[in-house]
Amino acid sequence: MEPLLPFTALLNRLFAAPVTALLHRLGITVQSPSQPIPNYVAMQVLVVLLLVLLFLIVRSRLSVEKPGGLQHLMEMLYGFVGDSCHEIIGHDHERYVPYVATLGLFIISCNLLGLFPFFETPTGVPSVPLGCALVAWFYYHYHGIRTNGAGYIKHFMGPVLWLAPLMFVIEICSHLARILSLTVRLYANMFAGDMVTLVFFSMIPIVLPIPFMLLHLLVAVVQTFIFMLLTMVYLGEAVAHEH
After folding, report:
1. For residues 37 and 12, what is the distance between their CA atoms, to the nearest angstrom?
2. Were both Cys, which of 19, 165, 178, 190 would link to 36 (CB 3.0–4.6 Å)?
3. How far is it, in rounded angstroms, from Cα 140 to Cα 100?
4. How many whole angstroms separate alpha carbon 66 and alpha carbon 200?
């Protein structure tokens, strides 16, 4: 069993009993009833708590006359996501901006958490990128059906009628492969970044790891943007229809 981080140990100390009981009810075997919460789950809980706190702080300081630096930063980020959604998704893009922005903030926070002592990068564990990919996958299919109704199935049939059965199989495989693509891309890059930083930090913990930490920061930002960009592309394809 991996050593528990301080925040993980705190969560297990507070919630081990109810979490273990819940997992037993769901038919999930718990190897250690006193430590049912792993590090990557605890890190996600911490990220959610930090984001909620950030949103509450921004909400409490909103001002039209004297906007603060934090408000300017959040407006800039929201505007960037809004402009990107407008260019890629097009019509009715405003509906999807909150989801894409929230997804981006969650992923970038998870990616950067491992740079701080006593924490680790939850996206360096396969199940976390997989969860993000599955949520994005179901989200864009839901909105594709909501927007186009039964006509959404035409997206899978192709333009040529006699090739429709073959195109349907190909499109289904293609859409399922998107889950794997989103998962592996994010997981592999963050896991590799964590390992490189950890190796050099263990060898020479002063000065030398700094360039690799900056590289980790760059990779974290780039991978977040790619995940958001692909989600917007998939949304744009799903909700597209002829006007």
Report:
1. 6
2. 19
3. 11
4. 45
| DSSP output for 77-137 | HHHHHHHHHHHHT-TTGGGGHHHHHHHHHHHHHHHHHTTSTT---GGGSTHHHHHHHHHHH
Q: Name the pLDDT band for 243 (thresholds 50, 70, 90).
A: very low
- The residue-averaged pLDDT of 16-39 equals 90
Position of tokens 């009628």? 161
Instruction: Determine contact, residues 171/156, Cβ cutoff 8 Å.
Output: yes
From residue 78, alpha-carbon distances to 56, 88, 104 in Å are 16, 15, 10
Name the token pair of 68.
Answer: 């603060």
Spatial separation of the C-alpha atoms in residues 40 and 119, rounded to whole Å: 10
Six-digit token string for 21: 């009981």
Among 14, 102, 7, CA closest to 54 = 102
DSSP 4: P
**Cβ atoms 113, 122 nearer than 8 A:** yes
Q: Six-digit token pair at 233?
A: 């592309």
Are 85 and 96 within 8 A, CB to CB?
A: yes
